[in-house]
Amino acid sequence: xxxxxxxxxxxxxxxxxxxxxxxxxxxxxxxxxxxxxxxxxxxxxxxxxxxxxxxxxxxxxxxxxxxxxxxxxxxxxxxxxxxxxxxxxxxxxxxxxxxxxxxxxxxxxxxxxxxxxxxxx
Length: 121
Description:
By secondary structure, the chain is of the alpha/beta class. It is built from four helices and seven strands; from the N terminus they run βαβαβαββββα. The longest helix is centred in the middle third of the chain and has 21 residues, at about 55-75.
């Protein structure tokens, strides 16, 4: 996720906090804020990287590749993908390839399962 802290409707740090409640996806903060305190706060809230404006596209792409490389390493070295994902009444079982909501099995086509898996991952 590329996230600018200076959003018009919501503070970017609030978004970091909320995303970390349900996802481990890489978060790269893009901001004009150069204050060290702002950087530290974003990283402590769960951002994986912080890049200040202006920046070059080559640097941004390198940081994206690094974040993806680190997140791929983390996912492949853990057994997280074999444990069911639970969020409230929703349970996605990766091994059984089933989705259950409030105890009711929801039929998913193979493509629907892959999309759901991708969004949760």
